[in-house]
Design goal:
Organism: Chitinophaga hostae
Number of strands: 10
CATH architecture: 3-Layer(aba) Sandwich
CATH class: Alpha Beta
Pfam family, one: ABC_tran
Largest sheet: 6 strands, mixed
Structural class: alpha/beta
Strand order of the largest sheet: 6-7-8-3-9-10
CATH superfamily: P-loop containing nucleotide triphosphate hydrolases
Number of domains: 1
Order of helices and strands: EEEHEEHEHHHEHEHEE
Keywords: ATP-binding, Nucleotide-binding, Translocase, Transport
Helix content: 25-40%
Bound molecules: adenosine-5'-triphosphate
GO molecular function, one term: ATP binding
Number of helices: 7
CATH topology: Rossmann fold
Strand content: 25-35%
Radius of gyration: 17 Å
Family: Belongs to the ABC transporter superfamily.
Shape: globular
């Protein structure tokens, strides 16, 4: 069954002049797959991911995620959908520097209040341990290295066990060693929890190791590689 179905999606920016950034994009993603989105700078990768993240619903066409159409939904419905189903990891991790690592990971779950605080703390600790930063849990986030902070950001994206994890160049500011390590962690987590990963990347090695690569050129799908 498809988790994501994108059909004939086009996107225009109106400022400074009207420009078509995505042109008739269609593809499907099955559950539990690792998908990469590649293409030259300016080809529309981030714009596409942003639409898939449901933060921007001004597009033509159709985006269905988990059987739900995103077009035409109001903001509060979308925010609720995101909180429950989508986790994000960006190039710059946006942790709250003054908060402890543990608190940073717990925050998205505290917002949803699906579990008691003690249970959220327990799950956050488990994730941090799985990601190899358990010992840092009680430190302030700003004291960790870039690679460690990125692992914390992954734990934060995973705390609500979202169906989909999205990343825009999540390993973009890491060296090749840490970048490969973070990629393997994504893989491991998706295999263990059945999560679907969608990642924008410039890194050819990462793209080659993913299940499916959507390659964009000038806002169009140039090629879809399924491995
Ligand atoms: N908010 C916006 N308003 C107007 N134009 C935009 C906006 N965001 C992006 N664009 C333009 O849309 C095109 C695609 O941008 P996008 O960021 O999606 O590309 P990208 O493939 O992710 O590039 P990069 O690899 O450099 O991040 C670019 O020409 C960009 O200048």
């Amino acid at each position: 069954m498809n988790l994501i179905t994108v059909k004939n999606v086009s996107k225009y920016f109106l400022q400074p002049t009207r420009m078509q950034v995505l042109n008739d994009i269609s593809f499907e993603v099955e559950k539990s797959k690792f998908i990469t989105i590649t293409g030259k700078s300016g080809s529309g990768k981030s714009t596409l991911l942003y639409l898939l993240s449901t933060m921007d619903t001004r597009f033509e066409g159709s985006i269905r995620i988990n059987q739900e159409e995103m077009l035409g939904r109001n903001n509060s419905w979308l925010a609720d959908f995101r909180n429950h189903h989508i986790g994000f990891v960006f190039q710059f991790h946006y942790l709250l520097p003054e908060f402890t690592v543990l608190r940073n990971v717990m925050l998205p779950a505290l917002k949803l209040r699906r579990y008691p605080v003690a249970e959220i703390e327990h799950r956050a600790m488990e994730l941090l341990q799985l990601l190899g930063v358990g010992e840092q849990a009680h430190k302030r986030a700003s004291l960790l290295s870039g690679g460690q902070q990125q692992r914390v950001a992954i734990a934060r994206a995973m705390i609500n066990e979202p169906l989909i994890i999205m990343g825009d160049e999540p390993t973009g500011n890491l060296d090749s060693y840490n970048s490969a390590a973070v990629f393997e962690l994504f893989r491991k987590m998706s295999a263990e929890k059945g999560q679907t990963i969608l990642m924008v990347t410039h890194d050819e090695d990462i793209a080659r190791k993913s299940d499916q690569t959507i390659h964009l050129a000038d806002g169009k799908i140039d090629e879809i590689m399924v491995r």
